[in-house]
Design brief:
about 190 residues; about 40% helix
Length: about 190
Amino acid sequence: MISMNICVFASSSDAVSPDYFDAARDLGRLMGERGYTLIYGGTNVGLMGEVAVSVQNNGGKVIGVIPWFLKDEGISNSSADQLIVTEDMYERKRIMEDLSDAFFALPGGFGTLEEIFEVLTLKQLKRHNKPIIFYNTKGFYDILFEFFDRIYEEKFAKSAYKETYYVTSDPQDALSYLENYSPTKIPDKWFR
């Protein structure tokens, strides 16, 4: 099995349905069993913390990247194999993006959306060609994809960009896609 660094963006809320925690745990277990390294936001709360614990409990490595002001909140993962403390959120994202071979979006709030949109935008602009996977537990992202369809219909983005990300609710399918990924042919962004 090829060693891989997988970045996971996910909720930091402990208040979400247990179904989301189960799905995060399943993904983390499969990543750990394959010996993958998790790159993530470095906290011990919410789905972020659940994935990290599951990866480590199943043989994988965990690298957390957290800004100092969140570390000072007492929510950093002291059990991570490596914890990188950054000056701000911008540096955090840059390091996570640089260290990662692939990106996953688990269900999450504004921060998760902001992070996954940045890597989608960078892929659209041909700054990387890494796999992007939406782990769509309980159809969480269905409404977002309806909105994406509106973006394509109204020509705010080319419909070919549907090929720049993959959507699944099955962790086995997600990792299968990742392990068989071949870089996407990305068209130029601009309608001319």
